[in-house]
Amino acid sequence: MKITEMRTIVTCPGRNYVLIKIVTDSGIHGVGDGTLNGRELAVAALLEKHLAPLLIGRDADRIEDTWQDLFRGTYWRGGPVLNTALAAVDMALWDIKGKRAQLPLYSLLGGKTRDSALCYGHASGDSFEDTAQHARELIDRGYRVVRCQTQIPGTHGTYGAGRGDAPRGEQLPFVETWEPTPYLQTIPKLFDFLRRELGDQVELLHDVHERLNPIQAARLARELEPYHLFFLEDPLRPEHKESFRVIREHSTIPLAMGELFTNKWECLPLITEQLIDFIRCDLAHVGGITEAKKIATLCEAFHIQTAWHGPPDVSPITHAANVHLDLALPNFGIQEWSQLPDPVADVILGGPTYSDGCLTVSDEPGLGCEIDEAAAGAYPYQRAYLPTTRRADGSVHDW
Ligand code: GCO
Ligand code: MG
Predict the structure, then answer these.
(1) Whose CA is nearest to atom 1 of ligand 1?
(2) Is the domain 3-103 a CATH 3.30.390.10 member?
(3) Which residue from 112, 152, 153, 320 has the least number of CB within 10 angstroms?
(4) Spatial contact of 124 and 150, defined as CB atoms under 8 Å apart
(5) In this predicted model, what pLDDT tens digit does every residue of 213-272 receive, in sequence order?
(6) Whose CA is nearest to atom 11 of ligand 1?
(7) What is the CATH architecture of 108-365?
């Protein structure tokens, strides 16, 4: 079964997505997601100009060989742009394999080890009460695990505090401000408030978004211990893997990390030294299903569970790939799940189904998703950036 064409579709049904269709001479085609928030067109150009010519004439069955060839054959390998494009191709080839075998992806991955995948939703707010109210709404809709973020007093904009805070249509990035002291003072008080308001039955978690230094992260982790978080996410920048030891030395809080990693080697020290408890790579940025499965297997040997990145800025195709893996992996932990803008369903058919705090996928062959190219054409790309962050003195900080 030879690849005859790869089409790249850039569309904005409420969010920018870079999607692909790989077509074969048998008439079977596969779909993939190559969305990299804020740098979409770089991946689209890479797919169209550099990768499509390399794929024509290839045997669509040879996923691992294609992965190795595209990853190593660039010489300038790795990084988010190259590995997001690689992920799109990888997903589409798995989709083709599933359609050819007439089996859903979870079946090709070894079959279901569970019936549904536990997921968490996002609660946000301008005040503690707002965040608690949002969490209550999610709990009423069946969520058993909720991520909680809040506006930090005295700062301008805070990651995760706004509802559906997708930065769309901005000409230039929105600049937030951030300071460690008010953040470190606020977050333990938030969780004290939430536990009193919501009780102990619901699981809570928090995303630091790589903003702290090691000793700040250790302090936060220790001060959050009484509230028994499901995990504390991305406390440090991905460059500083050895610094996770500092957090471990001071706290028993479960740690999650990984949405900024782009391959298994970056994850390795955190895994082999058991410095984290959950790996949360993004399937669309880590080279797809092939690489994520290998990372999960490495984790299995070190008591680490999966918590794949599931933000609104990747398409339902990646969300579907996440859940197929979640259903098959023995060391699945939890799945992040986001509400997508309504028009997304006009462009991408299929994707996971939410019910009672858990996700499932259909038994359709492959990923179970389809792209309506005509509908995609009605939602053209809109330039958009992620926000950036500066300290009170004007210096650049991590968003
Ligand atoms: C998460 C992430 C996202 C990222 C976003 C960037 O935990 O879901 O931190 O919110 O900020 O994916 O594009
Ligand atoms: Mg995150």
Answers:
(1) 311
(2) yes
(3) 153
(4) yes
(5) 999 999 999 999 999 999 999 999 999 999 999 999 999 999 999 999 999 999 999 999
(6) 209
(7) Alpha-Beta Barrel (3.20)
